[in-house]
Amino acid sequence: MNLRIDPMSKIPFYQQLTQQLLCEIATGNLQNGDLLPSIRDLAAKTNLNLHTVHKSYKELQKKGIIDIKPSSKAIVKKSAEAKDVNLQQISIMVEQIMCEAYVLGISEHQLQQMFHENLRKYYIEP
């Protein structure tokens, strides 16, 4: 797992970490049933505060992407269990992205290109 936090980014660290963990799952680097590093270990690897990593894990748990066991073990649950929870949330996020792109003056063509590039990363087999 190669996670990098950009300290110069305007995106909060926990959101950067959450997004990178999602990408690790989407690309198959983390799979259903895999254990995530402990909060302490991941904080040390990424030079982040323990609370930042905890917030990221809680965000993934809320989305139904991971389970956090009482023994503080976080486990990936990428399977169908997670899918039911998120369709409406994802629809809302896509609409938010489109509205923001429109307000920022990004053309429909540019937005389509961005979506197609990202779709190819995750949905089209090499």
Tag the structure with descriptive keywords.
single chain, 126 residues, mainly alpha, two-stranded antiparallel sheet, 5 helices, 2 strands, 60% helix
Structure, described:
The chain has 126 residues and is mainly alpha-helical. 60% of the residues lie in helices and 5% in strands. The chain is built from 5 helices and 2 strands. The chain has helices spanning 13-26, 39-46, 50-62, 80-103, 108-123; strands spanning 66-68, 74-76. A two-stranded antiparallel sheet has the order 1-2. Helix 2 crosses helix 3.
Distance between the termini: 21 Å
Q: Helicity, in percent?
A: 55-70%
**Rg on CA atoms, Å:** 16 Å
- The chain-level structural class is mainly alpha
Shape designation: globular
Mean pLDDT: 88
Strand content: under 5%
Described by strand count, sense and barrel closure, the largest sheet is: 2 strands, antiparallel
List low-pLDDT spans: none
**What is the H-and-E element order?**
HHHEEHH
Strand order of the largest sheet: 1-2
- Number of helical regions: 5
Number of E-type strands: 2
